[in-house]
Amino acid sequence: MQLEPSLLRLESGDLIRRLHETDPAFLFKQSLVQDTVRESLLHHERKRLHRLVGQALEELYPERRVELASLLCQHFSAGGDDDKALEYAALAGDAAARINANTEAVAHYTRAIRVAEQPGRPGALVQELYLKRGRALELGNDFAAALENYDALTELAFRRNDRHMELAALMAKGTIRSIPTTAYDMDLASVLNDNALDLARQLGDKSAEATILWNRMLMESRVGTSFYTALAYGEEALRIARENNLTERIAYLLNDISPLLVFKGQAELGERYNLEARDMWIEFQNLPMLTSNLGYAVMIHLAAGKYDLAIQESQQALRISREIDNKWNEAFSQAWVGEAYLERGDIAAAERVMLEAIALGKEYFPPTLVMTRSDLARLYTELGFPERGAQLANQALEVASAKFLAIRSVAIGALADASLEMGILEPVRKMLPEKIELTDFIGNPLFGIDVARSKIRLQLFDHDYQGALTETSKLLEFLFKNSIRQMQPNLLLLRARALSSLDRVPEAADDLYLALDIAQAMAAQWTLWQIFAALSRLEARRGNLELAADFRAHTQTLIASIAERTPEEYRARLRARAAREL
After folding, report:
1. CA distance 240 to 243
2. Last residue of a domain, one of 62, 91, 121
3. Range of the domain at 7
4. Are residues 53 and 84 located together in one domain of the fold?
5. Is the residue at 112 inside a domain?
């Protein structure tokens, strides 16, 4: 390639130098010279040279187009070649998005949109760029800016009378409003999703219909009203996606249906769906969705009592989330796993991950301000600090009442437990339902079971042993039917207390030994020490003093192990509680 006369003159005048002997690239020796030379060129000459540079880079490095996309965009933009500038701005945005450089992706897509909005360019291209910019803003945790982006797309759709573009904007806004972010709004989500579904069906757009049903599933399940309504939406969306070979939508649906199947008694199918979606996210190199998938795996493993796996998946999700600076998933990966650390007897780790999730909650993933804060409240109560537990539970209840009404029961359960521990009964009686209906935990099991357990504890405190027996039996029937193992030993403990108090000691013993088998299989050390203590009391009552002593020794050994992994400020009360149980 022959050098431009201008370059030859600059090189001979010792104003520029080659980067490499074989590489036709140069550097100015001084920035002042560079500015002077640039300004001395006529405007049309500068444009011509920029185009030539862009063309030269394309010709010399065809295999590096993606790598050089940002630079190529600059040259073609300065050279007045809008088509090339648009092509490389979009390519640079895609390249940045692939490595989760979301700020850079937004900047590139914005540059591309400016060109793409010019008259005569296809609406589908403009729509695609807006959606990509919106997704980059979401992944950068700027949901307000993402909504503004989709509002701008809506306005553009109205100006162009483009109903497909209008639908795309409605769906994108519906997704943001349906998931538990700082922009979550169930009422708005419902309106957006309903309007979008009507429009999708008018247009005969099956891909859009599957997406909107997915939105509805998210709205109903994540902090919504009914797991089973959500599951019906998800299964219908998955049917449509499979019939129409919508590969990416299938991945999203498998991913987000998987935890719901656990509460339908299909835990193995849920785990299979989760792993199938994971393989797809790895194939697509979609790290944000991979971390979301691992977060759902934590929930699935917790319900199955697979605590080591829950911790393992959480740690992997946390590592990836921090690598890509995704704060939403960083909080999500730690939102529930504290329960696994607690059952492993690692109180320090349980407290640490809960506090980290709560700290991220306000700005990125608000459900931790209710769910995780309630878990931490229960932890403090069980360690012998009910006042601290009540304070946190009240904070959780305040957030739930303001934003997440469907999960108020979780905070109410935590507050009731702390109040009972402090002997404050009247407020507990007012806050808990008079009767627990089966639908309270079937309609929304993840949230309803907590308040059901608290109601049972109140019944035991009030010596309503028959009532407690009835309620625990209903709840255990649901847990066993649906293979939700995590809560089984704790509920069996409560039912054994009711049976023992009714002088039905052999049945109480059956429940305790069943609880022991399940807890040992799960290596649930926190629940195990309580089962050992209960068995020690029961066997002493039956006159089996040697066996009672063995169980007492097991309790003390476990408490000693747990105390070693408990912050020093909590150890004395932990040991005092264990002594009372024995």
Report:
1. 5
2. 121
3. 1-38
4. yes
5. yes
Angle at 100 between CA 96 and CA 103, to 5 degrees: 65
What are the residue ranges of helices labelled H in 117-162? Answer: 123-139, 143-160
Token pair, residue 204, equals: 């005969």
Task: Determine the 3-state secondary structure of 523 from DSSP.
Answer: coil
The answer to whether position 65 is within a domain reads yes
Please give the full DSSP string across 161-175, using - where no structure is assigned.
T-HHHHHHHHHHHHH
Gap between the Cα atoms of 271 and 259, Å rounded: 8
Domain end (from 75, 104, 121) = 121
> Are 302 and 279 in contact, with CB atoms under 8 Å apart?
no
Listed in sequence order, the residues at least 6 apart from 9 whose beta carbon sits closer than 8 Å to its beta carbon are none
For residue range 224-263, list pLDDT tens digits in order.
Answer: 668 888 999 999 999 999 999 999 999 999 999 999 998 8
- 361-371, pLDDT tens digit by residue? 989 999 999 99
For residues 31 and 54, membership in a common domain is answered with no
Alpha-carbon separation of residue 52 from 17, 23, 526 (angstroms)? 19, 16, 71
DSSP-assigned states of every residue in 409-434: HHHHHHHHHHHHHHT--HHHHHHS-S
Q: What are phi and psi of 504, to 5 degrees?
A: -105, 65
**149, 170, 145, 135: which is closest to 326 by C-alpha?**
135
pLDDT in tens, 448-457: 788 888 889 9
The rounded distance, in Å, linking the Cα atoms of 340 and 329 is: 18
Question: Within a 10 A sphere around the Cβ of 60, how many other Cβ atoms?
Answer: 13
DSSP-derived letter for residue 384 is T
Burial of 472 (0-12, 13-18, 19+ CB in 10 A): buried
What are the structure tokens assigned to 323, written together? 């690598």
Same domain, 66 and 91: yes
Residue 67 sits in the same domain as residue 113: yes
- SS3 (DSSP) at 570: helix
Distance CA 560, CA 467 (A): 35
Contact between 284 and 501 (Cβ < 8 Å): no
In a domain, 64, yes or no: yes
CB crowding 515-525: b at 16 or more within 10 Å, else e: bbebbeebebb
In a domain, 525, yes or no: no
- What span, in angstroms and rounded, lies between the C-alpha atoms of 339 and 322? 22
Please give, one letter per residue, the 3-state secondary structure of 450-499: HHHHHHHHHHHHCCCHHHHHHHHHHHHHHHHHCCCCCCHHHHHHHHHHHH
Q: Are 305 and 484 in contact (CB under 8 A)?
A: no
Instruction: Note the pLDDT of residue 1.
Output: 42
Question: In this structure, are 46 and 34 located in the same domain?
Answer: no
Q: What angle do CA 452, 439, 409 make, to 5 degrees?
A: 40
With tokens 């809560």, the residue in question is: 487
Q: How many CB atoms lie within 10 A of CB 147?
A: 18
CA distance 281 to 369: 29
Q: Based on the domain organization, do 29 and 76 belong to the same domain?
A: no
Sorted by sequence, the CB contacts under 8 Å of residue 435 that are 6+ apart come out as: none
Q: Looking at the whole model, is its pTM more than 0.90? A: no
Residue 30 and residue 102 in one domain: no
Please tell me the total count of domains within the chain.
Answer: 2
Is 88 found in the same domain as 51? yes
